[in-house]
Amino acid sequence: MGNAKFWCLRAPNKRSPNFAVAKMKVKFQILWALFAWFGLASWVLAQVPPDGLESLRQFLQLSNSGRAQFTQVVSSPARADQAPRRKTSTGTFEFQKPQQFRFAYQKPFLQTMVSDGQSLWLYDADLNQVTVRKQSSLLGQTPAALIASSGDLKALQVEFNLKAEPESEGLQWVKATPKQADGAVQFIRVGLKPASAANLNVPTLSALEIVDALGQTSRLNFTNYEVNVKLPAETFQFKTPAGAQVIRP
Questions:
Q1: pTM confidence score
Q2: 117, 198, 188, 135: which is closest to 159 by C-alpha?
């Protein structure tokens, strides 16, 4: 009898039914904690928005065509004796994969850049002059490659070092630095509006910033962007105006 009151201090008998039940309860508690953790982790990850690289991957993968209006501001580097100079242009932009696009500058001068997938046509209305180059030799490290490429982020990384940058202006940004260091472009920044139901769950191209080898910055802001629209075939077919001089360097 003297030892009866100390029964609660004795080590449990591993063969007893109570020990088996207790052990099973511990297992269920561990499993429950694991399920709760993974469920919470999945919820947390679902709340974290994709970064710029993920939005760029989605943009390349899900955008087969598009059109928009644009405003371009070109800023020259500041000099000791004068303030930075700025030039503003406006126009329309259209693209269709693979590697077809049209930039039509409307103000202050009429200029057109058309890529048909094989050749790149540059038309200056004031000079009445057309310059034609092979597209394959020009697009590998240009902003056009970021827009109208085939849709493979890995293929783009062959030409560029890509880095996600902090979100600003309500946009997700990617900095693309050409791997060929002696090119005409220092780097390009792509600003994307994250995917949402309003834009058919496809990230929207909102801005491009290009810094060239001379330190000149070009900023293109896109508005009224439409994704995966059907574009006429003639959109990307350039017809040389009558009397225009054609130059093939």
A1: 0.74
A2: 188
Nearby residues of 247 by Cβ (< 8 Å), 6 or more positions away:
129, 130, 131, 132
Looking at the structure, give the CATH architecture of the domain made up of residues 52-247: Clam (2.50)
Task: Categorize the per-residue pLDDT at 1 as very low, low, confident or very high, splitting at 50, 70 and 90.
Answer: very low
Query: Which is higher by pLDDT, 244 or 179?
Result: 244
CA separation for the pair 238, 100 (Å, rounded): 11
Largest Cα–Cα separation, the chain? 120
Place of tokens 């679902």: 46
The three-class DSSP label of residue 226 is strand
Q: What is the DSSP string of 191-224?
A: EEEPP-GGGTTS-EEEEEEEEETTS-EEEEEEEE
Residue with tokens 């001068």: 109
Closest CA to 230 of 79, 56, 96: 96
Contacts within 8 Å (CB) and 24+ apart, 112-120: 112/238, 114/236, 114/237, 114/238, 115/139, 115/144, 115/148, 115/236, 116/236, 116/237, 116/238, 117/236
Look over the chain and give the mean of its residue pLDDT values, rounded to a whole number: 79
Residue-wise pLDDT tens digits, 186-219: 999 999 998 887 777 899 999 999 999 888 999 9
Domain map of the chain by residue range? Answer: 52-247
DSSP 37-64: HHHHHHHHHHHSPP-HHHHHHHHHHH-S
Strand partners, 121: 114, 132
Rounded Cα distance, 67 and 95, in Å: 6
| Tokens 């999945």 found at | 42
